[in-house]
Design goal:
0% of the residues lie in helices and 52% in strands. By secondary structure, it is mainly β.
Length: 109
């Protein structure tokens, strides 16, 4: 990853109004900041959240709390637990997320 020059900053995600994204079931709260062409998010999934779409975007995802199941378009399922990171490149593996009990994720894309 190449980062454009941007100034040092500290962000308190608690001061950012969340965007609410409804899933097939449950919802996600996204708190977003942008640094040039990089999107940085603190995302909270409600219990029983299931994404309403397949995503082709690349991400670096750190699970800060709870756990999330990621289903790949080929049917594979992977469990991301607290303290773990997953990475996927743009247009590499279409994926969607599910969280039985809810989780908090730090996502860079």
């Amino acid at each position: 990853m190449k980062l454009s020059p941007f100034p040092f900053s500290i962000t308190d995600f608690n001061t950012i109004e969340p965007e609410i994204h409804t899933g097939i079931t449950g919802f996600a709260e996204w708190r977003i900041i942008h640094r040039e062409d990089i999107r940085i998010r603190l995302v909270t999934y409600s219990p029983d959240y299931l994404a309403d779409h397949w995503c082709n975007k690349g991400h670096i995802i750190f699970c800060a709390e709870g756990e999330m199941e990621t289903e790949l378009h080929n049917g594979e399922k992977h469990l991301l637990q607290k303290g773990q990171v997953y990475t996927v490149g743009d247009h590499a593996d279409a994926h969607r997320s599910y969280s039985k009990n809810g989780c908090t994720l730090f996502i860079v894309d």
